[in-house]
Write a structure and sequence with these properties.
Elements lengths: L2 E7 L3 E8 L9 E4 L5 H12 L8 E6 L5 E3 L18 H10 L2 H8 L8 H11 L1 H6 L2 E3 L1 H10 L4 E2 L1 H5 L4 E2 L4 E2 L1 H7 L8 E2 L11 E2 H8 L7 E6 L3 E8 L10 E4 L4 E8 L3 H10 L18 E3 L17 E3 L7 H22 L5 E5 L1 H4 L2 H11 L3 E4 L4 H13 L9 E5 L6 H24 L2
Parallel strand pairs: 1-4, 4-11, 7-10, 12-18, 18-19
Antiparallel strand pairs: 1-2, 2-3, 5-6, 8-9, 12-13, 13-15, 14-15, 16-17, 19-20
Helix pairs in contact: 1-6, 2-4, 9-14, 10-11, 11-13
């Protein structure tokens, strides 16, 4: 009987569970939460979560948050915290890169934009603000590279999946991008070796978004995973021999023959939490309310913009406030606002038929899934996989071992409400108008 240990290293929690050859849990999952960015703290939490579970398994598969950067010294020790996608301090460095490079060409090669989420902007920012750290760095690695090296020993290696998530990988040549490295003055020797081969049964970590799709059974152009955790993403996974990024969307590698395509939002569960912590009395049912009931337009860009405009300087906005506006109105408008941003991404994913809701932010909130279906104007099916990234890491490891994983279970289907279609179309048009107005304002502001 084949058994694998799956790890899900998220940006705020660690999960571990043993799975059988069918992709079903063989023991109880463990979850440990954390709140810092110390690489060694994360390593110790992963060790605690594993707690000997890797003994006797056939392989270890890991899902890890993408886009993270850690700088190592000559002794292989971290000299920076984990620099993640939410760190927007490199916005001006991204602008500097845009003046030096053709962003459309960079996106065509790497599937990533010159944006604070990705390594090029972060490396340029480090070179400017921390020149001693930048010049003295022995290695620039992802959090997963460092964690795996500490757990199993040896030099840091990076999967093609996580390497493509850095924004520094040439998707066609499968090597670090020469033009970007030249502009950044980073030698390829200072980056992790790219390999998808296991070391002592440990497969190099895959990017979490890809794992979430696989775990939820979203592995075709027609079926997308709509995931809301801290942030949000709408992704498809499909086979191709020639990766071709589309404007407005990211494109990462999953493995030798598959890619992950879609869009990501910086506002998701974190926005829901902000509403809850900032306003009083936001509780209440949204079941009988449509966008015309509150008259608000909420541009949900509080964390800056990733898809589809990739503007880290973008800010959120609310229009239509009156003295009659209630906290519940604002909560409803916020959830609708996120859904409308997802609708912009869905419009770029041609051929999309099915949408599967995943992630704790959605699965714990059926009303939000209904709002998603209304805003997308298509059915949304709730996944019955509680931890899609964790199951996906197990499924990918089992696949490499020659096993066939059972289909991911599905739950309730939320159909768009025809009687509210016109209200949602009007509300989405209002958000587009507000988006364009704020974009012009930012362009014209000094």
């Amino acid at each position: 009987m084949t058994r694998v240990l799956a790890l899900d290293i998220g940006s705020s929690s660690i999960r571990a569970q043993v799975f059988d050859e069918h992709g079903d849990g063989a023991d109880e999952a463990v979850k440990l939460e954390y709140g810092g960015t110390d690489p060694d703290e994360i390593v110790e939490l992963v060790r605690t979560a594993i707690d000997g579970r890797h003994e006797g398994v056939d392989a270890v598969g890991t899902s890890c948050f993408g886009h993270s950067l850690v700088v190592l010294d000559d002794g292989g020790r971290p000299v920076t915290p984990v620099l993640g996608w939410r760190d927007t301090r490199s916005a001006t460095a991204a602008d500097w890169l845009k003046r030096r490079l053709d962003e459309a060409e960079v996106h065509a090669r790497t599937g990533a934009y010159l944006h604070t989420s990705f390594w090029p902007a972060k490396l340029a920012w480090l070179a400017e603000t921390e020149p001693e750290i930048f010049r003295g760095a022995s290695r620039f690695v992802s959090a997963a590279d460092y964690i795996h090296a500490q757990l199993r020993g040896g030099e840091p290696t990076c999967s093609s999946s996580l390497a493509s998530g850095t924004g520094l990988l040439d998707l066609t040549k499968r090597v670090w991008d020469e033009e970007l490295l030249d502009v950044l003055q980073v030698e390829p020797e200072r980056l992790s070796r790219i390999s998808d081969e296991p070391v002592d049964g440990w497969f190099p970590a895959w990017i979490d978004g890809a794992c979430s799709n696989v775990g939820a059974g979203c592995t075709s152009r027609e079926r997308a995973a709509l995931s809301v955790g801290t942030s949000g993403a709408l992704r498809i996974v499909y086979e191709t021999e020639q990766p071709q990024p589309k404007p407005g969307l990211f494109l990462y590698l999953l493995d030798d023959g598959r890619v992950v395509e879609g869009g990501s939002l910086s506002d998701g569960g974190n926005l829901y939490g902000w509403i809850r912590d900032t306003l009083k009395n936001t509780e209440g049912s949204l079941a009988d309310r449509d966008p015309d009931s509150h008259g608000l337009t909420f541009l949900t860009l509080l964390g800056g913009e990733r898809s589809t405009g990739w503007n880290p300087f973008a800010k959120g906005a609310i229009a239509g406030l009156t003295f009659d506006t209630t906290p519940l109105d604002i909560r409803q408008a916020a959830l609708e606002g996120v859904a409308f941003r997802f609708a912009e991404v869905a419009d770029l994913l041609r051929g999309l038929e099915d949408v599967i809701a995943t992630g704790g932010g959605l699965l714990a909130n059926p009303e939000w899934i209904q709002i998603m279906a209304d805003a997308l104007a298509r059915p949304v099916t709730a996944s019955k996989v509680a931890e899609a990234s964790l199951r996906g890491a197990a499924a990918l490891a089992l696949e490499r071992l020659g096993e066939t994983v059972t289909d991911a279970p599905l739950g309730a289907v939320f159909h768009p409400r025809e009687e509210r279609a016109e209200a949602y179309r009007s509300a989405r048009d209002r958000q587009r108008e507000l988006y364009e107005a704020t974009r012009r304002w930012h362009q014209e502001s000094p």
